[in-house]
Amino acid sequence: MMFFLGIDFGTSGARAIVINENEEIITQVKHSFSHPQTNGLAQQWENTLYLLLEKISIEIREKIVSISINGTSSTVLLCNQKGEPIDEPILYNHSRDISLLDQFKTIIPHHHLVNSSTSSLFKLLWWYKNNKIQPDCYFLHQADWLGFLLHEKLGISDYHNALKLGYDVENLCYPDWLKSLPISSILPEVLPPGTPVKTVKNDLIQRFNFPKNCQICTGTTDSIAAFLASGVNNPGEAVTSLGSTLVLKLLSNTYIEDISSGIYSHRLGDLWLTGGASNTGGAVLKHFFSDEELTELSQQININQRTNLDYYPLLKSGERFPINDPKLAPKLEPIPNNKIEFLQGLLESMAKIEALGYKKLQALGATPVTQVYTAGGGAKNKNWAKIRQYYLQVPVTISSHTEAAYGTALLAKQKIGVN
């Protein structure tokens, strides 16, 4: 019997899930960061990684044949030859002065994904400007470095994490403009996610009782791992995450991009994962209703009768997708006296935005939507699902798995010869 381990490093902690050959969960463990986003981050990640492994029983660890790790996109480190951080890691949401990009505007394409104060490339250039780059040092994403701790091979990344570094996922290479930058010498080698890199290093085999042939595979980002967890594998299938915001991800035969609207494509083998994020979502609902009200009032909605309320539910002006307008004002009037009707109007309006989003992706050339799986807190709202199905005109179901660690475990399994 073979087991596969997926590890998810998020913003507040980490989770590990072990699955078997039938993709059934054998065990799952988690550990919260004690002081997230403070000094000593890398040491905290290392401690957390080993604590997670210790929480998995020896009987299970002895059967784990491959491990993959995901991290937050654009969380990066600069390391020396021993893999020790030269400076504090820069988190995914920590920006730097965007004016730095002006020095390279004649090199970096104007409408490129890396033109952001939080992109991986921008952070690397910031380290370069501040003289942090040493001879023979390495630039790694969070998932890359955590993998290194298990296999001791530096300078390896995957093309999900490397997208915001400027890696060309269409042609599977670094573009010439990127290779002309002064930091090109420390760009990592990029492999497909889930590719076996090396077996677990000997001291960890002895410490945790892993099999000698246990492979450490390249990882992915947390959001793609969550998509993989849904089990989507056919073009036209999509996942909508109903969290604080509304996030759409569609598996497509074709690559599409509209950076101005936040639309870009990740490679998934021979397919493409594309999508966008709207500022509408659960945060708006919770502004007007308590969790208890949302549950109680949702159950009283008459889904066979539309409200005809025409809202664009936002908490403040500004929208990214499917309408790209930084000045788009919220539209939340008229507010009826009946709370049930008001909630239904909000849910209907969000469903229309979701439908508009998928239509925009299709208009750009993506594969038409045939099925939508739902993740996030709003996935449990059955009447909302029925409303969304009415506007989307495709089946809407809840994802059987939503944990990013589960998706990463599937990634660990895919290249080990078990289908």
What attributes does this structure have?
six-stranded mixed β-sheet; seven-stranded mixed β-sheet; alpha/beta; 419 residues
What would you note in describing this structure?
There is one protein chain. The chain is of the alpha/beta class. 29% of the residues lie in helices and 21% in strands. The chain has twelve helices and 17 strands. Strands 1, 2, 3, 4, 9, 10 and 11 form a seven-stranded mixed sheet that branches. Strands 14-15-13-12-16-17 form a six-stranded mixed sheet, covered by helices on one side. It has a two-stranded antiparallel ribbon with strand order 5-6. A hairpin with a 3-residue loop joins strand 12 (237-242) and strand 13 (246-252). Helix 7 (222-229) packs across helix 12 and helix 10 packs across helix 11 (382-392). The longest helix has 25 residues, at 339-363. The two termini are 14 Å apart. The model has no long low-confidence stretch (mean pLDDT 94).
Give a brief outline of the structure.
The protein is an alpha/beta fold and 419 residues long. The protein is built from twelve helices and 17 strands. The longest helix is centred in the last third of the chain and has 25 residues.
